[in-house]
Amino acid sequence: MTKQLAEIRHLTAVGVGPGDPELITVKGLKALQAADIVFVPQSRDGNKSLAWRIVADYIDQSRQEVVSLLLPMTRNPRELVPAWEAAVDVIEGKLSAERPLGVYVLLGDPLLYGSFMYIWERLNENGLGPDVQVEIVPGVTSFAATAAATQTVLSMTHERVAILPASYETIANLKQMFETFETVILLKAGTVLPQLLETLEQLDLLDHAVYGERVGMPEEVVVTDVRQLLGQKRPYLSLLIVNKRINEMF
Ligand SMILES: C[S@@+](CC[C@H](N)C(=O)[O-])C[C@H]1O[C@@H](n2cnc3c(N)ncnc32)[C@H](O)[C@@H]1O
Known about the structure:
Elements: E1 9-15, H1 26-34, E2 37-42, H2 50-55, E3 65-70, H3 77-94, E4 101-106, H4 116-125, E5 132-137, H5 142-149, E6 161-165, H6 171-180, E7 183-187, H7 193-202, E8 209-213, E9 221-223, E10 238-243
Helix pairs in contact: 3-4
Bound molecules: S-adenosylmethionine.
């Protein structure tokens, strides 16, 4: 049986950019302001999520419902899978024929290491795909914002760019990536920063790296002389861009 239009519920994943509320796209803002319900993933109870902080001023809480989804920051599937399932149940329970428009906000771009993919997968597994129509609004990524803040060129003409989750990489693999790609972007860098910088030092690449932490947020740290960070572990929301052109051409 064909669903009546009124019965179809919508869930739009909106990438809200890296931190500066002005870096939300016009399309993202429209989706956000049209929503009946704003789903906000957060890693710990009681902690306001960073995505929420970015969008808070754009939401009218007298008209829109804000729903937190607890998604712990862990690699343990025994904690993650039940959390994703619980989040899908909440989304499924909240969206209704009367309040059919939901948005799910997340940092940067939704399809780059975002939590939304797991929710989306489970919506489909639960057979809700046809009932809950999913849309994706792309967002400004953390590395695009860091490149802009440090005036770093990411690539020109033939240059290849690699994006890596640094805390999952081996040093041997990283060394190979630095040889193969003109630009290497290292996300999830904070906890492994000492090892990353040591490797860059060995490869004589320290002068060709820039560092961005909580870029676009009030706590932003941007470092263009990464020697200052040698030996330091830094927060999770941090990244390195390594490009042989840095400090040479521009
Ligand atoms: C789970 S991934 C999310 C990536 C995000 N979807 C994006 O498009 O940038 C988290 C990693 O992104 C990077 N990140 C996200 N926001 C950041 C920010 N404002 N400043 C620096 N790095 C950020 C960090 O490397 C962090 O470890």
